[in-house]
Write a structure and sequence with these properties.
152 residues, elongated, 2 domains, Divergent PAP2 family protein, DUF212
Length: 152
């Protein structure tokens, strides 16, 4: 069994599961669909790669090539999660707003039109920096716990 990989994948699942009660606390409603969405607190991307790097650091040492690879890979993933993917989500919000504005401006034509209404694009794609940090802290915790359990 590949314990570091299992640790990372389990951490991703746990982080996704944590999003449900956190969203309940923030919004006041249960939304179990949150488990299957990207974005939100904590970042499961950050949690998974940090758990992997943490486990490898504890198992092989911080001077190992394995740790170097997992850390660089993890930093790229975290940068992408809060940078590029977040910007894409913000752009999608603007596109959806434009579509709504156009629909309002052309409302009088709708009664004569047979075209279907456009599907609203999903806006939540990336993470805020604090969500990435929350995922990293969670991954540090789960990677350490997994390593300690494996040592027993």
């Amino acid at each position: 069994m590949n314990r570091p990989m299992l640790t990372a994948l389990t951490t991703i699942g746990l982080a996704q599961g944590l999003k449900i009660p956190i969203k309940r606390w923030q919004m006041g409603e249960w939304d179990f669909g949150t488990f299957f969405e990207t974005g939100g607190m904590p970042s499961s991307h950050s949690a998974g790669v940090t758990a992997l790097a943490t486990y490898i650091a504890l198992e092989r040492g911080v001077s190992s090539i394995d740790f170097a690879l997992s850390t660089v890979f993890g930093l790229i993933v975290m940068y992408d999660a809060q940078g590029i993917r977040r910007q894409t989500g913000e752009l999608t919000i603007k596109v959806n707003q434009m579509a709504e504005n156009i629909a309002e401006l052309t409302a009088f034509q709708k009664s004569h039109s047979t075209s279907k209404r456009a599907v609203r694009l999903r806006e939540r794609l990336g993470h805020m920096p604090e969500e990435v940090l929350g995922g990293a802290v969670f991954g540090l915790l789960t990677g350490s716990i997994s390593y300690l359990i494996a040592k027993e």
